[in-house]
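Troubleshooting entry. The earlier prediction with 2-phosphoglycolic acid gave an output that would not parse, so I re-checked the input for stray whitespace and re-submitted. Clean input:
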Amino acid sequence: MEVILTNDYEEMSKTAAGIIAAQIRKKPDSVIGLATGSTPLGTYKELIRMHREDGLDFSKVTTFNLDEYLGLSPSHDQSYNYFMWENLFKHININPENVHIPQGLVDDAEAFCEWYEERIKKAGGIDLQLLGIGSDGHIAFNEPGSSFGSRTRVKTLEEQTIKDNARFFKNEDEVPHFAITMGVGTILEARKILLIANGENKAPVCKAFIEGPITSQVTASALQLHPHAMVVLEEKAASMLERKKYYNWIRDNKHLVQKYLGR
Ligand code: PGA
């Protein structure tokens, strides 16, 4: 796991957007996995800027979002469909046919989940998956206890997640209790993973998933099993890490090893 420490939210967002843009420039028809929540908003803002000012081209990009609340229509202002169009898609030149977001209003959620997995396979798999992390350690809506082999499915949300997300709704009672989410197993199949986190409230969980044991009680710790996982943290989220000095040394001395890597 490559841990990249940044000074503030803006630097975290620009670093993450830079990694996504580099992937798209290298492979214009990349398949990118996207996330919702407050954490990636700055990353999306920077990608929009790069599209407008630097010509970053999304026309051949395919996207798959991680999750959606079960029961919310795509036009509901708290649905993740709505979030993605408002905060990213409507500002870039993505082909709407290449956008995939789980649907919250489906007659047969199980069949939908199978279809979603199939679509990811048909697209050739995900090249780069962006992730946030919940204060209970979840990635997507894989709450504590989710199997590392889990696939896209319906998941019941934890009380903590409902409390955390209540800030976006009128009150806690309005937060849906179920979601459709990619599984931990689905996420681990992405060729590269990029997790971002900011804020003091994420510090304990960042320490747990980066420096603690691999456990389904902190589903983000599954990233320790991935061959190419990058974690970009803002200072407060990184404040409890014990090996900060080591991560910073690597960042500052990367050039020393470059000559051995053939890059
Ligand atoms: P947040 O949510 O970005 O709003 O903190 C992250 C998550 O639950 O994955």
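This one parsed fine. Residues 66 and 140 are 6 Å apart (CA to CA).
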